[in-house]
Amino acid sequence: MQRKTHSGDKIFKCEVCDKLFGKRWYLKRHMKIHNGDKAFKCEICNKLFVHSFNLKKHMRVHTGEKPYKCEVCDKLFSDSSTLKTHNRLHSGDKPFKCEVCFKMFRQSNDLICHTRIHTGDKPFKCEICFKLFSQSNHLKTHLRLHIQEKPFKCEVCGTTFRHNGSLKTHMMIHDGETPFKCKVCHNFFISNSALKTHIMSHTGENHLNV
Fold first, then answer.
1. What is the C-alpha separation between 50 and 42, in angstroms, rounded?
2. Is the pLDDT score of 4 beyond 60?
3. Burial of 122: CB neighbours in 10 Å, binned 0-12, 13-18, 19+
4. What are the pLDDT digits (tens) for 98-149?
5. Among its keywords, does the record have Cell wall biogenesis/degradation (predicted)?
6. CA distance 13 to 57
7. Percentage of the residues of the chain whose pLDDT score is greater than 70
8. How far apart are CA 106 and CA 108, in angstroms?
9. Domain locations along the chain
10. Could you tell me if 85 and 96 are in contact, meaning their C-beta atoms sit under 8 angstroms apart?
11. Cα angle value 16/22/27 (rounded, 5°)
12. Each residue of 15-26: pLDDT tens digit?
């Protein structure tokens, strides 16, 4: 579908998802996403792509090529969009705003995930127990409960964990770190949960009570 703006510019609209384009060719290229046309194949892993530039970007996974460099910290990236997002760490730019609570975000995906807090939308479902999640990474972590996967391994003692955060907390045992301090008696603890349990000894609170 073609229409004009107030300035007279031609706008081409996708009839499937309503996305707008300034050129007919851009719309035509975009339509391949909806048509399922994946003509470009990676000869290493056989993954298929809609556009040749997607395949070119994917190949850097195999080659390790990172041609885009941050001029501030010299960190390298495999694609320009990731570099652009990274640069916002240095500039403090947060161009994506939640229209409900006005919180700002550096990435559009972060805004999309955040919006689900307001809408209650949970589009990711566990096919084993049918529990719903608002983010795909939360579902991925949940699935480890079913398959008993513990991919995060302590290189010191070999203990494995489902969550990277649990491994980091565990490593404090080996490193001798105790960053959580009791404000009453000034004792230190390796985790916030251990500190909370300890504080009950001062307050007399029974953590088993509900």
1. 12
2. no
3. middle
4. 999 999 999 888 898 899 999 999 999 999 999 999 988 899 888 888 888 8
5. no
6. 27
7. 92
8. 7
9. 2-41, 48-117
10. no
11. 35
12. 878 788 888 888
Q: Which residues are paired to 189 by β-bridges?
A: 180
Q: Can you tell me which residue has the tokens 């500039």?
A: 91
Buried b (16+ CB within 10 A) or exposed e, 171-190: beeeeeeeebeeeeeeeebb
Residue type, 89: L
Structure tokens at 185: 């008696």
Query: What length is written for the chain?
Result: 210
Per-residue pLDDT tens digits for 66-94: 999 999 999 999 989 899 999 999 999 99
Summary count for the chain: helices (H), strands (E): 7, 15
Superfamily of domain 48-117: Classic Zinc Finger (3.30.160.60)
